[in-house]
Amino acid sequence: MTEIITEQPSKYNHLEKMSVDELITHINSEDQTVASAIQKKLPDIGRLIGAAEHRLKAGGRLFYIGCGAGGRLSVLDKIELPNTYGIEKGIINVILSGGEENLVLAREEAEDEPQDALNQIQAFGVTSDDFVIGVSASGTTPFVLAGMKTCRALGVLCGCIVGNPNSPIAAEADYPVEVITGPEFVTGSTRMKCGTAQKMLFDMISTTLMIRLGRVEDNKMVHVRLINNKVVDRSVKMMMERNSALTDYDFVKAAIVQTGSVKKAEAYLQEQGILKETLK
Question: Is 178 one of the annotated active-site residues of the chain?
């Protein structure tokens, strides 16, 4: 590695002497640099997504391997996708240091346990049909590095999201994404800018994949699961917008509740001869 930029001293000194207005102004200023750092890496991000898409369309799975803030953010992304896009659980997975069951315990010490990564990879049955993305701010995390090396030995295609250039983890990746957000406002606190970049990247990767896998039509979540009244109402209005012949709210709602989603309701009504054409 040339340097660990994420560990360099903050360019702001004596934070404890700053007013609230000064603190939030400086934090906001630093946050504004994150999107531009990601923009510089869009070609790399596109290549990673393309490779993951190919694996998923062939029946493989996507795995994130991570620790700390980045690992926990990847869990958040994973748990939201089945409800939002109606995919089956198990398509997107997270190998989290200390185990996903210990998420709220924030077992930061587990990032130094390489064997834990190997055990989880074996338990998940990761194969060359899958795609793995290592997540590490430093690019050196032992848990993630061990997991990447194990996956490479199994013939698994790997990508990574790291916050430093020329890292050991990036060296193990077929599709490295190095988003350099610079020193943190609080020195070494990579839950800040680096974590913000990771969250933006997870959103970008998973949303693009879901669209490419046909889980979105036009700009609508046509496979969203009916998890609450708000989503049911949104789904009814969505279906009526897509199908101008449907004007009875209660009828459409009954069809959606009976079948479980907009797409399933449309297919059901088409089978019944009630609906002939869907606008997309």
Answer: no
Encode the chain (280 residues) as per-residue pLDDT tens digits.
667 999 999 999 999 999 999 999 999 999 999 999 999 999 999 999 999 999 999 999 999 999 999 999 999 999 999 999 999 999 999 999 988 887 777 666 767 788 999 999 999 999 999 999 999 999 999 999 999 999 999 999 999 999 999 999 999 999 999 999 999 999 999 999 999 999 999 999 999 999 999 999 999 999 999 999 999 999 999 999 999 999 999 999 999 999 999 999 999 999 988 887 655 5
Three-state helix/strand/coil letters over the chain: CCCCHHHCCCCCCCHHHCCHHHHHHHHHHHHCCHHHHHHCCHHHHHHHHHHHHHHHHCCCCEEEEECHHHHHHHHHHHHHHHHHHCCCCCCEEEEECCCHHHHHHCCHHHHHCHHHHHHHHHHHCCCCCCEEEEEECCCCCHHHHHHHHHHHHCCCEEEEEECCCCCHHHHCCCEEEECCCCCCCCCCCCCCHHHHHHHHHHHHHHHHHHHHCCCCECCECCCCCCCCHHHHHHHHHHHHHHCCCCCCHHHHHHHHHHHCCHHHHHHHHHHCCCCCCCCC
Q: Which of these is catalytic: 100, 108, 109, 111?
A: 111
- Pick the catalytic residue from 80, 100, 113, 217: 80
Query: pTM for this one?
Result: 0.93
80 catalytic, yes or no?
Answer: yes
